[in-house]
Each structure stands twice: as structure tokens, then as C-alpha cells.
User: Fold this.
Amino acid sequence: MQNLKIHFPGKLIFGNGSLNNLADEVLQLGCSRALIITIEPLLPQLQAFLKQLKDHNITTTIDTSIVQEPSFTDFYNLLQRVQPVNPDLVIGIGGGSVLDIAKLVAAQLDNEQTIQEIVGNGLLKQRNQKLICVPATSGTGSEVSPNAILVDDADNQKKGIISPYLVPDVVYIDPLLTISVPPAITAATGLDALTHCLEAYTNKFAQPFIDIYAFEGMRLIAANLTQAVHQGSDTEARSQVAMGSLLGGFCLGPVNTAAVHALAYPLGSMFHLAHGLSNALLLPYIMEFNIPAAPKRYADVAMALGCKKQADDTDTAKLGVKKIRTLIKDCGVPATLGEVGIPREAIPQMAGDAMKITRLLNNNPREVTLQDAIDIYMAAY
Assistant:
């Protein structure tokens, strides 16, 4: 067992309607110039918050330029635009891409390190600006993780930046913000959060403390995601999935993900598939691949998903794979690479790119070779 290291946010508020208290939080921080990174569709829901800041003479700059998984260039362009503003507070309100960018902007506003110099684990050395993150989807868990992901324009590969300085000072999770999220995005982000929990629980470096979060996260999401997808105004279902996503986010720093995420990355970088959808497409196939190496762990996964325990761990684990396939179908998510237009001839390059994601593949309970990666993609086709 490796040493357990957890960097929790300084303060976390969770609850329906909690966004109403965010302005008071900003006032308590004593900041006067706020940069708000968000997306256009959320602006109507933020008007009351923005008015409160204005009424208290807090200067606000709003950026809505991040509309897809961001690249190094996207980050640099945004940073150059906002540096003259010299904000003393950065607030990210949106999905994982928005939150990742907000975390990096807060760290890099006055940091002499380039983005290339901080790619990797523990290389970022500072963050001087205050940082608040508010997720508007239930998926990435970025609001509580030390991770941020960017696409490197030089090689079109997703690169991870991991540092305790990327963990926000304050996190507000208001599940009511997710009510406007469309069904397809609700499904994909929810399955992403489920994958965070599942890959942490079955990880080669799993930790008993994190197992508690991972198991409960799987249980909450599996029991409530379909309802959140089909009845988006169900505040109880939204709240339960949001809590599951939060628990998945806590898994990312101390343990992190494994082969599902590693093999999903090329789908995003090469074909611009949404991250959650990419994970969902591969999850059941990699579960099948991993079960022989960790049958007891995958049997526990099946139990968390609501399956009945069988006499044999492997049989129980297989029920978990069946449950995941049912959940994917019930949420209306595509089940094969062919359905989303991935060309079969791209599989060798995808496999080669996936094998470069060693920081995640090293966590997998079963070693993945290049041929294994090709076989998994073929099975998922």
C-alpha cells in the first residue's frame, strides 16, 4: 500500500440552492477583482450572483471562451486576455473543462513556469490567487481534485497536470445547477463519475479510506442516474448523482483512474468525443478484461451497482458488467465505437496513443499490452 495523500478543499458547501450564498463567500475572502470562467448557457442562472457582486463594488470579468475540451493554445489565449485584469479571485462555474481551465488560470496568472513545465505530477510550485469552483455538471469531480487535463497542440495528446495547488480554496456544489443539463450530457458525465469511482475501487493502488468514497459513489450513481437522465427536474435524483460525482472526485487525487481513462483519451484527442462518452464506450469491455486479475474487487463493484451476490466472485463480477451495459442502454448512450463513427482502421493508432498514458495504465489491476489495447478496441467496435 502506498502512502495516502489527500488534499481537501479549504471549504466545501453542498446543497440545493447553495449558490445563493456564493456572493457572501466572495465577500468573506476580501477580494475585489473576480474573474469568472463559465459558459454562455449558465449566464441567466448567474445574474443574481453577478448583481450581488456588483452591488458590493466587486469588479467582475466574465470569460465564456471554453466550449470544448481545452488545448494548450486555448489556455494561453485565455490567460493573455485576462492577465491585464489582474484578478485576485478566479471562479470557475461549469463542467470539467471550465473548472480545469479556471484552476490553471488561478495558478498561472503570476507564475513564471510555463504550462509545459508543469505537466506531470507535483511540478506546479504555487498558486497565489484565490480559487472557487462550482460544478454545473455531475461528472468530472474536477472541483475537488488536484488534476487538470489539456490537449497538447504539439502532438494532439491529452496531458495531465497534478498538483495540490490545483485544489480550490472553496467549493460550492448546488445540484440545482445541473437541472438544465440535457439528458445526453447528464448520462455521459454521470457515467464518467461512475468510472472514477469504479477505477479507484479496482485500482492496483486502492486505499481503504478511498474505497469508502468509491463504493458509495458507485451505489449513488447507479441507483439514480437513469432517473436524472429521463426526469431531469427530479431534484432528489440530481442531488444523489451530484454527491456520487463529488465522491468520485475525491478518488482522483489519492488513487486516480486506470485503463478505461487511458484508452478513452485517444477518442477525445483524435475524434473529439466527449470525455464521459469515451469512458462509457470502453467501460464494460475493460471490466471484462480486468475481472480475472481482481475478481473479488469486481464482485464488490457489482454489489455496489445493485447486483445480488453469487456463490462465486467471478460470477458476481460478471453481473456487474451486465448491469453497466443495462445502465448505458437505459441512459440512451451509444454502446459501440462503430455507433459513434470511429473508423476501424484508426484502432492501431488509438492503441499506440493509449499506451503512452502510463501514469494511468500503471494503476490498472491487469497489465495492458499494445495487443490487449487493440483487442479491447476491437471488442468495443
In short: The chain is about 50% helix and 10% strand. The mean pLDDT is 96.
